[in-house]
Amino acid sequence: MQTIVTAREHLEVGRLDECAALCRTLLEADPNDRDARTLLAACLDARGRTLVDEGLIEDAIDAFGQAVAADPANVAAHAALGRALAAEGWFDEALAAIADALRLSPADIGINLDRATVLLKAGHLLEGWAANEWRHRQPGRGTTSPAPMLPKLKHLGDLSGRTILIRHEDGFGDTIQFLRYAQLLAETGARIVLSAPRELARLMRRQAGIAEVLTGNADPARYDYHCPIGSLPYVFDTSTETIPADGAYIRADAKLTVEWAARLPPGPRVGLVWAGASRSGDPAAQALDRRRSLPFKMLLPLTVTPGLSFVSLQMGPARSQIAGGVHDPMGAVKDFADTAAIIANLDAVISVDTAAAHLAGAMGKPVFLLDRYDNCWRWLHSRGDSPWYPTLMIFRQTQPDDWLVPVTQAAQTLEEFFPES
């Protein structure tokens, strides 16, 4: 028997057409089926983010609104309405819908994190960082530690001689983005130990402010405070006006940079990244990767820019798409230390929203960010620049899944950027 459980399973694995069809069948049988109405709206919302049809997001907003009207106590419908409104940049309305959900379920971790995301994307960073601390309450997210969590900097006294353990949390890009705070903490006199994945460790050991880098589950013998790296903006009370973004804060190893220079084509050189990491076992993450990635062939208008050499920085299965004379050194790359050395030899990087874009921005390289319609909160809304990386330019989709506009804009800007190439 086809049930709401089956429809939900379709949605979780990305079978959106099947989910929508089953929900409509269930609603034909029972127009008051609130679960089917909410799930249909969620399906429309997901389709609106993956198909070139902006109207589907509007349909999803209407459907969520109907679900809320039919059942004002439906927490999931209020929250979903808020997410859909936020995807369109209607932040006041989104926060109002999420507030309705939280009045019904104030301790819901997911909805509190939805609120954090909307606040951050809207530029209300101080409120957003505070709300984002709800992530520590997620199952399996908290860490046991003999030392207390690092409090806000304004509440701390003299840190001279104190050891602070900073822990990697989520993606590589997050750790690269927030590493800037490690040097600021070190300038207070603290000793900074970073716990990071192996892929980042060799690069991080050479960065200013880092006294020690640990991998795996190792902890230093003694430390006075610990802090997940995503909480450092909260610790520093960071607003859009106080983001520490003065100059490059990550440097490649000089010896590696020279070694990689000999393996690259003549300049000017432009790096390319067109796909995110595919994360199996996580349907939501896979859906996000599909939205932020594009096929290599769509970058061909960029690769014909005269006088430039193009160098792939792409890792993973998407490497197989390379064509058109693009140089691919990534088979010999061991970790981010090698990637940084390659970037140090480039004149610009064109990338979708990946760790490579963060790394190039952190190194002070010009970055052309090709950004999806429902962009990540860190790139804010309706901006062509980023307060996090002064050298980064944003070329954003004007419709879901339509890369033509941002790629065309980036190609035109690239020609202006290298007029004599």
Report on the structure:
The protein is an alpha/beta fold and 421 residues long. The protein folds into three domains: 4-137, Alpha Horseshoe (Serine Threonine Protein Phosphatase 5, Tetratricopeptide repeat), CATH 1.25.40; 153-235, Rossmann fold (3-Layer(aba) Sandwich); 254-417, Glycogen Phosphorylase B (Rossmann fold), CATH 3.40.50.2000. It is 43% helix and 10% strand. The protein has helices at residues 4-12, 16-29, 34-50, 55-70, 75-87, 91-104, 109-121, 125-132, 172-178, 180-186, 198-204, 232-235, 254-261, 283-292, 300-303, 336-344, 355-362, 404-417, and strands at 163-167, 191-195, 212-214, 225-228, 269-273, 309-312, 348-352, 367-371, 392-396. The protein has a five-stranded parallel beta sheet. Strands 3-2-1-4 form a four-stranded parallel beta sheet, covered by helices on one side. Helix 11 (198-204) links the parallel strand 2 (191-195) and strand 3. Helix 1 (4-12) packs antiparallel against helix 2 (16-29), helix 3 runs antiparallel to helix 4 and helix 9 (172-178) runs parallel beside helix 17. It is globular and about 70 Å long. The N and C termini lie far apart (64 Å).
